[in-house]
Amino acid sequence: LYGLKEALAILFEEGLDQVYKRHHHLGEGVRAAVAAWGLKTCAKEPKWNSDTVTAIVVPEGFDAAKVIETAYKRYNLALGAGLSEVAGKVFRIGHLGDLNELMLLGAIAGAAAAVLLTPKTGREARELLAEHSGDLFKRAQEAAGQAQTRAGDLFDKGREYFEEQAQRLSS
Predict the structure, then answer these.
(1) Residue 138 Cα distances to 1, 61, 110, 129, 135, angstroms
(2) Comparing 7-16, 44-53, 93-102, 131-140, which segment has the lowest mean pLDDT?
(3) How many CB atoms lie within 10 A of CB 56?
(4) pTM for the model
(5) pLDDT tens by residue, 53-111
């Protein structure tokens, strides 16, 4: 019961409205990264996007289970698997719970690397990487720049908050 009490205290300290906004913000970030990679999400229309998890459709000829395995073995990153009709066709990145932009950025980078490192079939995989790696890295750099701008904004907000608190405490 202590754990439940503490979890609820953390949740209510942040505020439910803020928690929902944070999950939406993080979900939008994942979907922006997926679009930058040139991949698609499983949601056919934006109205079906989830603020808790994003299912990413792997390129044709890839096995999502191998992407998930590569992410786990290489980066100790746990990606979710597609179930039922989408098994082997999608992997999932969760953006729910005690998670922030920096933590999610690591998951996004690990997932992108796992997709790049998961071979289709020997020569085919090398050709695919050679053909698309420049574009994927350019898109990743653009996404990283946007994330850095957001991180800078968050840092500024944090600094303002701590300055306000320090001023309040010194009064």
Answers:
(1) 49, 23, 16, 13, 5
(2) 131-140
(3) 26
(4) 0.68
(5) 999 998 888 889 999 999 999 899 999 999 999 999 999 999 988 888 888 888 988 89
Q: How far apart are CA 93 and CA 104, in angstroms?
A: 9
**Angle at which helices 16-37 and 101-117 pack, to 10 degrees?**
30
The full 3-state SS of the chain, as one line of letters, equals CHHHHHHHHHHHHHCHHHHHHHHHHHHHHHHHHHHHHCCEECCCCHHHCCCCEEEEECCCCCCHHHHHHHHHHHHCCCCEECCHHHCCCEEEEECCCCCCHHHHHHHHHHHHHHHHHCCCCHHHHHHHHHHHHHHHHHHHHHHHHHHHHHHHHHHHHHHHHHHHHHHHHHC
pLDDT at position 39 = 87
State residue 53 phi and psi, 5-degree precision.
Answer: -160, 145
Neighbouring residues of 114: CB distance < 8 A, sequence distance ≥ 6: 67, 68, 70, 71, 74, 75, 77, 79
Dist CA 162 CA 156 (whole Å): 10
